[in-house]
Specification:
six-stranded parallel β-sheet; 11 helices; two-stranded antiparallel ribbon; Rossmann fold; single chain; about 290 residues; alpha/beta
Length: about 290
């Protein structure tokens, strides 16, 4: 199987049905892999920055990671503002950049550039992403792609970037023989399709007469251990703080929407009677 076909098929398997891109030489294998499919479509734009913002918008609306593709050099650099927007607003997105063939890398040569439009986008983008990685060997693709999709959605969501050299894109692979990325803690299992479910909760009144959730149910499909114990302790601390508050107020931010917790928050506010205010980014987190 051609590696580029594997990448597109994996994205489609996650329910991602749109890719935003501006065509360029270093991503032609990926664009060719998407051509003619009925489960995923390329949306062409006139500037890579537009592709990045479109991917952000897609993620905000769909709840799935947005994906933008750009060619090497200036194409990859033009994604930066959109990547920054995803990072600061906690929006899950995968940015895939094309790169020169691995045999054209300048490495430690005293040159600024050897391959055409060769640019070390991974080093440049690191302050604005949760993870960035240059895939130098075809056998790394399954692990790298699964890790990127998982990290984009884990915890506080955000952007990730994979840099794919052209000779890696056109390599032949057998995905079943490649190592995948194991799901741990609250990281979504890409291959297993683990989905967090809304916890059920008992309710009891606090000192101010409001009702607050009791012990939280365990989410199915997630590992136990220290990470879960830490979350349970945080929940316990929050409940204690609410119970002791004289005039509690919920300030809903963008994290509510990012966590797909709008309905849970509405239910909590309704049953507890605690008033809700919103930040600018959280205006649509709870219906009026």
């Amino acid at each position: 199987m051609k590696l580029a076909d594997y990448v597109i098929s994996t994205l489609a398997a996650q329910g991602i049905d749109r890719l935003f891109e501006m065509s360029g030489g270093a991503i032609t294998h990926l664009l060719d892999a998407a051509y003619g499919r009925d489960d995923i479509a390329c949306v062409s734009v006139h500037h890579e920055q537009a592709a990045a913002f479109a991917a952000e918008g897609y993620a905000r609306v769909s709840g799935r990671p947005g994906v933008a593709l750009a060619t090497s050099g200036p194409g990859a650099l033009n994604l930066m503002t959109g990547i920054g927007s995803c990072y600061f607003d906690s929006v899950p997105a995968l940015f895939i950049t094309g790169q020169v063939n691995t045999y054209e890398f300048k490495f430690d040569r005293p040159l600024r550039q050897l391959g055409f439009q060769e640019t070390d986008i991974v080093s440049i983008v690191k302050p604005l992403v949760k993870w960035a990685y240059l895939v130098e060997k075809p056998e790394e693709i399954r692990y790298a792609l699964e890790k990127a999709l998982a990290l984009a959605q884990d915890g506080r969501p955000g952007p990730v970037l994979l840099d794919l050299p052209m000779n890696v894109q056109r390599a032949e692979i057998n995905p079943e023989e490649l190592s995948g990325y194991p799901a741990k803690g609250d990281i979504p299992a890409v291959r297993l399709g683990i989905v967090k479910q809304e916890p059920r909760a008992d309710h009891q009144p606090n000192k101010a007469g409001h009702t607050v959730p009791g012990k939280q149910a365990r989410s199915p499909g997630l590992d136990g251990g220290s990470a879960k114990q830490g979350v349970e302790q945080q929940i316990s601390d929050i409940l204690e703080a609410i119970a002791s508050a004289r005039r509690p107020l919920i300030l809903a931010g963008g994290g509510v929407r990012a966590a797909r917790a709008s309905e849970a928050l509405r239910r909590f506010a309704r049953e507890s009677g605690i008033p809700v205010a919103s930040t600018l980014i959280g205006l649509d987190a709870v219906a009026e």
